Automatic annotation (TrEMBL):
Organism: Kitasatospora aureofaciens
Pfam families given in the database record: BPD_transp_2 (PF02653)
A cellular-component GO term for this protein: plasma membrane
Main location: membrane
Localization per record: Cell membrane
Full protein name: ABC transporter permease
GO terms of biological process kind: amino acid transport
Molecular function terms, GO-annotated: transmembrane transporter activity
Domain of life, source organism: Bacteria
CDD domains with a match to the protein in the record: TM_PBP1_LivH_like
Length: 288
């Protein structure tokens, strides 16, 4: 029983990390129809900015995480303003440009700090364990779950209750009409990129807690699962992305433990294929 509880908590913690990355991708890809293959680079930027602030700059963990998130947010805004915005009507060029950024950022990080993983600083408060139904579970799993739940609530409120959330939803449906009404859709889209970048950077900052280290390829590997989560959850649905993240994390952990290391990734691919055969539009396939 304790093994099942431990695997469940660990799987949900991994799913929470996937959601932190996939939620921003769901907004950018699902709402704005932009295939941002540089999203993993934003995660890496947030992770390394947090690591640098916590080790080189001497920040406490509680200041390093906001710093890393802000750096990732600023990188996302610059990416949208200088690279994506001129290419909104050229999706093929978007893919080439963002793939280039997605390859260049890890190479830059590798050139500056090397290819080896760097130990991630963890405060004593989050380095312990909690006993849950007989299982000893690391505290950082629950930190990831709390962050993911807070992000899900914030995104749902943003899309449903704020002016810019409504503008984004309307702009996706009919951008020309919204622009004709005198509303600057571009500003709203930049805000979406900023939110997506902040979520990815936060995922990178807290991902160091889960893995215990940061490395240049971390964002790229997590981006693959983030795309799987977005497709499974339904384009543009943050609620669907949350449900899919939990499912992917649980399946991966249980499959790795009961079958063999590496088969967890294969099980996720199988799960994606089965879901798309049953529900081609994903779990929800709507904006919510």
């Amino acid at each position: 029983m304790d093994t099942v509880v431990l695997l469940s908590c660990t799987g949900l913690g991994l799913g929470a990390l996937y959601f932190l990355v996939a939620s921003g991708l769901s907004l950018i890809f699902g709402l704005m129809d932009v295939l941002n293959f540089a999203h993993g680079a934003l995660l890496s930027i947030g992770a390394y900015a947090t690591w640098w602030a916590g080790t080189e700059a001497g920040f406490s963990f509680w200041l390093a995480v906001p710093f890393g998130t802000l750096v990732g947010t600023a990188a996302a805004v610059m990416l949208e303003l200088f690279l994506i915005r001129p290419l909104y009507s050229r999706p093929r060029d978007q893919i080439l440009a963002t793939v280039g950024v997605g390859l260049a950022v890890p190479a830059l990080l590798m050139g500056i700090w090397g290819a080896d993983a760097r130990p991630f600083p963890q405060p004593a408060l989050l380095a312990g364990t909690w006993h849950v139904l007989g299982a000893t579970v690391p505290v950082n799993r629950f930190v990831l779950l709390a962050a993911a739940a807070l992000l899900l609530l914030t995104l749902r409120l943003f899309l449903a209750r704020t002016r810019y959330g409504l503008i984004v939803r309307a702009g996706v449906e009919d951008r020309a009409m919204v622009t004709a009404l005198g509303i600057d859709v571009r500003r709203a889209f930049t805000l979406v990129f900023a939110i997506g970048g902040a979520a990815a950077a936060l995922g990178g900052a807290l991902g160091g807690l889960y893995f215990g280290s940061v490395n240049p390829g971390q964002g790229t590997s997590l981006l693959i699962f983030a795309f799987v989560v977005v497709v499974m959850g339904g384009m543009g649905s943050v609620t669907g992305a949350a449900a899919a993240s939990a499912g992917v994390g649980l399946v991966q952990q249980f499959a790795n433990y009961y079958t063999g290391t590496g088969l967890g990734d294969l099980s996720v691919v199988v799960l994606l294929a089965v879901l798309l055969l049953v529900r081609p539009r994903g779990l929800t396939g709507r904006l919510a």
